[in-house]
Amino acid sequence: MNELDLTNTQAVISMVVLIGLLLYQTTETAKKAPNLSEKTNRR
Q1: Digit-coded pLDDT (tens) for 1-43
Q2: Residues 30, 32, 38, 40, Cα dihedral to 10°
Q3: Burial call 1-22: b when 16+ CB within 10 Å, e when fewer
Q4: Is the Cα torsion angle 11, 12, 15, 17 positive or negative in sign?
Q5: What is the pLDDT of residue 5?
Q6: CA–CA separation, 13 vs 38, rounded Å?
Q7: Are 12 and 4 within 8 A, CB to CB?
Q8: Rounded to an integer, what distance in angstroms lies between the CA atom of residue 14 and that of residue 20?
Q9: Which among 17, 36, 16, 19 has a CA at the least distance from the CA of 28?
Q10: Distance (Å, rounded) from C-alpha 37 to C-alpha 24?
Q11: pTM of the model
């Protein structure tokens, strides 16, 4: 049970983190759309 619990929790957490990062990146890109070229040039 412990192993199953751990893997399930890890999967849920990783999925939430991935979705959160995707949403964050999309909102940031939408906000800074005009500065996108500058951002890529700096990197």
Answers
A1: 567 777 899 999 999 999 999 999 999 888 876 665 565 666 5
A2: -40
A3: eeeeeeeeeeeeeeeeeeeeee
A4: negative
A5: 77
A6: 33
A7: no
A8: 10
A9: 36
A10: 19
A11: 0.54
Question: What DSSP line would sit under 1-43, residue for residue?
Answer: -HHHHHHHHHHHHHHHHHHHHHHHHHHHHHHTSTTHHHHHHH-
Copy the structure tokens of residue 41: 């040039």
Question: In residues, how long is the chain?
Answer: 43
Torsion sign across C-alpha atoms 8, 12, 17, 19: positive
Q: How far is CA 43 from CA 3, 22, 24, 25, 32, in A?
A: 41, 19, 19, 16, 15
